[in-house]
Amino acid sequence: MMARLAALVLLAASCGSVAAAEFLPPGTTLESVVEAPAIVTLPAEPVICVAVETGRAAPDRSDKIIAAHNRAYHFSKDNGLALRRGALEISSAYEEPGGTWRTEACRAIEALPDKTYPDASDLKFYAVPAGKAVQALHRGSHDTIRDTIDKIEAFIREKGLERKGPLVEYHFNHKPPEEEHLQISVVTLYVK
Q1: How large is the angle between the packed helices 61-78 and 2-15, nearest 10 degrees?
Q2: Average pLDDT over residues 15-19
Q3: Domain range spanning residue 90?
Q4: Which of 72, 146, 181, 184 is the most exposed place for a label (fewest CB within 10 A)?
C-alpha cells in the first residue's frame, strides 16, 4: 500500500501544474464543464506511450499503469523532449474478451522526435489524430469511469454519430485510494 501511495505521489508530482483548460474546448473552464457529453473538435496531439496489458480488475493494474506513465515521463525528460499536459491513456478497446484490457499510458509532447532512440524499444511515438470527438468530464475513481463512457456512447447513438478511433482518457490528478472520489478526468471518444 505504501509503495502504491509513493508511486501515485511521484506520478502526481511528475504531472506538474497542468492547466485544465488545455484539455477542454476553447472558452470553457473545468468549473463550467458539466458531466454531460459534448461534441468538440480536437487538434492532433503528439504523444509518447508505453503499452500496458492487464485486467480492469487486476490487483496490479494501477502499478503497471503508473510505471508506464513514469517510463514515458522520465524518458522524455532525460532526452530533452518537451512535455505538454498531464497523463493520458489511449485504448483502442475498453474491454477485451476474457477480461484483458489493452491500453497505452502516454504523455503529450510538443513534437514528435526526428530521430530514433536505442533505448526506446518499449516506447511508441505518434500523433493522436485531429478530429471530431465527444467528450465528458468524469469525477471520481477510475473504477467508475465506465459509467461516463456509457453516457458518451449513448450520446453518440442518440446523435446518429459513429465511433471512429480510440478512447482517450486525460487525467488531471491521481489520488491515493482513500481520495479517488476527488480524481478528475476528461473522457474522449472520436466520432465521424
Answers
A1: 40
A2: 39
A3: 2-191
A4: 181
